[in-house]
Backbone:
């Protein structure tokens, strides 16, 4: 993790430093809620993981009444926004080759990342070459919004004037900061908490260091899955005593106590002004115009318009939303793309 991330998390200089109200299900604790207080917003201080979420997330959006935002409709915008270090070029069905946001596959050459990745051969969650492509599920190298050791920061400030020359020449500005940027989050993965779940509901960030950092059942499963993975052969030469919750915490009750005491947010608030159909009383934003229902000339384009949270980190989905919104405001739309998507063997 870049040192700057930890610095910004502990300072109010570039961070709004919010806290939630006390949460009754977390023993009354308030959760720390950092947010970027600078051009580029939270993308200026985030951990630079590039994660798109699962195709089903966007198909769910459409089912939730957000017409025109299915996976096949949003994939062209993920690609348009991106230049990926391992793209195969214009015919790559999943990854972009000439967009403004550089995503680089983490090298993950630290021996602990290598051990983590090797576990994909020994555990049923498996290994995936590209969690943002054909298959999300499995352990994987993480893609990072880093190029030549520099953070990629998105300034999406021009969308509301999308007809202007400024926007035509690109709603993107690159402010390369964080010389020598690197991320210790170069591997991770996705798993399903049970075979009955259609797509991953657990995300791992594998971090070769320690950090002090509803769905109790999923969180318990995540702890147990992590234990299973660290018990595998590739970690034999590295494994020490479990630091937290500790080997004595085994029962559901003990794990729940630990979760309530320790769980924190991974900094992805969203969905507070969700897109939805006119008939949905909870919808705030019209997905065909990005306009706010009942208010003239007010558009919203950020993570708050997600109708439900994408499974993963939210920077890449937010950038996709901005890219697609930009076309919506210009009355344009890219053709749908429907490449195949991996389904678990026990699902059809
Ligand atoms: C510490 C941290 C680490 C993260 N790591 C990752 C990661 O590795 N990968 C990933 O995909 N995502 C990550 N995220 C999440 C990701 O950065 C956000 O989901 C994304 O930036 C959301 O974009 P947004 O435009 O909705 O909001 P923001 O980027 O937060 O933009 C909101 C803007 O509004 C401004 N603003 C807010 N309140 C006010 C106010 N009262 N007055 C004036 N201006 C205001 C802010 O200054 C900011 O410029 C991380 C977030 C944080 C905080």
Residues:
């Amino acid at each position: 993790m870049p040192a700057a991330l930890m610095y910004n998390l502990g300072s109010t200089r570039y961070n709004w430093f919010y806290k939630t109200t006390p949460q009754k299900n977390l023993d009354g604790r308030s959760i720390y809620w950092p947010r970027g207080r600078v051009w580029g917003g939270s993308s200026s201080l985030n951990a630079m993981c590039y994660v798109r979420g699962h195709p089903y997330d966007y198909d769910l959006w459409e089912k939730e009444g957000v017409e025109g935002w299915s996976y096949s409709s949003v994939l062209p915008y993920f690609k348009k926004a991106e230049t990926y270090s391992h793209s195969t070029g214009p015919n790559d069905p999943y990854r972009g080759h000439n967009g403004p946001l550089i995503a680089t596959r983490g090298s993950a050459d630290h021996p602990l990342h290598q051990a983590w990745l090797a576990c994909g051969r020994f555990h049923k969650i498996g290994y995936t070459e590209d969690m943002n492509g054909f298959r999300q599920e499995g352990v994987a190298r993480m893609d990072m919004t880093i190029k030549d050791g520099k953070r990629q920061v998105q300034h999406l400030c021009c969308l509301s004037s999308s007809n202007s020359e400024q926007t035509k020449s690109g709603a993107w500005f690159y402010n390369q900061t964080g010389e020598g940027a690197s991320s210790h989050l170069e591997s991770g993965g996705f798993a399903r908490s049970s075979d009955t779940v259609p797509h991953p509901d657990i995300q791992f960030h594998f971090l070769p260091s320690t950090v002090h950092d509803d769905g109790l059942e999923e969180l318990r499963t995540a702890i147990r899955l992590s234990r299973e993975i660290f018990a595998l052969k590739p970690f034999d030469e590295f494994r020490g005593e479990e630091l937290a919750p500790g080997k004595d915490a085994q029962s559901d009750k003990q794990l729940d106590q630990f979760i309530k005491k320790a769980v924190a947010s991974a900094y992805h608030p969203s969905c507070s002004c969700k897109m939805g159909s006119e008939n949905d009383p909870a919808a705030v934003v019209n997905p065909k115009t990005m306009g706010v229902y009942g208010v003239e000339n007010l558009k919203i384009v950020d993570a708050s318009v997600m109708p439900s949270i994408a499974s993963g980190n939210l920077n890449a989905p937010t950038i996709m939303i901005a890219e697609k919104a930009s076309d919506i405001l210009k009355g344009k739309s890219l053709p749908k793309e429907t490449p195949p998507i991996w389904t678990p063997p026990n699902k059809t």
